[in-house]
Amino acid sequence: MKLQQLKYLIAIADNNLSITSAAQKIFTSQPGISKQLRLLEDELQTKIFERNGKQLVGITQVGKEILARARKVMQEINNIKRLSSEISQEDTGCFSIGTTQTQAQYVLPRTFSTFHKEYPGLKIDLHQGTTEQIIEQLNKQEIDFVIASGSVELGPDIVQIPCYQWDRTILFPQDHALGDLRKISLEDLVQYPLVTYNFSDKASSSLLRACKEQKLEPNIVFTARDADIIKTYVRKGFGVGIIASMAYDPDHDKDLISYSTRDMLPKCTTWLAFNKNLFLKQYMKDFIELFAPHISQQELVRYLYSEHTSSSELLHRFQTKDSKITKFQRVVSA
């Protein structure tokens, strides 16, 4: 078995089972990949991929296990390279982080401003997308860290660290009927068309869960990833907006009335995640300390070496921590 064969195997899986696309991605020939795949399957005496003629149409059950272990092997190869760089104290290279538009625009600039002063020779490669998209990149080891929000189970190979919590904000024009109410309830809110973030998995939406618990049916007429786009369509009269609290600017958005959802919707949790097999360079540890100052070095070690913990248990631990969390939440929301 060769490392090159494992590299080819991963490339095929990451390119929709297309050997042609895999060859183009890693700059090699299609016949070369096909030959090495046959040799690997012959050596292991098992089929890694399901076939329809010459076309790959799926991954066998044992193939999925082989693929997962191949990813770990290649991760360790990368760790050895990182270790060499760490020993030579080279704080250069590329630090890749996948995140959502809200985190990228409203939270991370402050963190990166401080971080970049400490590591000016380090290139920061920011990947934006939905939570599902950046988690997929993390699982494929295309990025180092993910920073996102929501209740998502990431699996036993992923370290998931709760960082801070935040409420959502309701936005509507100055002359809207909701402005006449002293207190807005969820029942009041769903009487109007809603403009909010899009979500590919309705089961993970705390807004929809809260409405379901109260037997309410929200009328969501427009969704977008970008809070500024949501605000634009609120101004156009599409409906009442629901955005992250940090995305509301009292100066730039003074034409809109804001109202916190803290009494009607559960708080959202932003977390940082990375592969448990990733070699953490010193700049990565420093970034975690900067972004999640309530996590001590001892706690980070526990996250790294403990067994898999569900997101609900992590959230419970997070909510019972001391005032350092509350202090950081105020900084983020400021």
TrEMBL record:
GO terms for molecular function: DNA-binding transcription factor activity; transcription cis-regulatory region binding. Keywords: DNA-binding, Transcription, Transcription regulation. InterPro entries: CysB_PBP2, LysR_HTH_N, LysR_subst-bd, WH-like_DNA-bd_sf, WH_DNA-bd_sf. It holds the Pfam family HTH_1. One of its GO terms (biological process) is cysteine biosynthetic process. PANTHER family: HTH-TYPE TRANSCRIPTIONAL REGULATOR, HTH-TYPE TRANSCRIPTIONAL REGULATOR CYSB-RELATED. Belongs to the LysR transcriptional regulatory family. This is LysR family transcriptional regulator. It comes from Kangiella profundi.
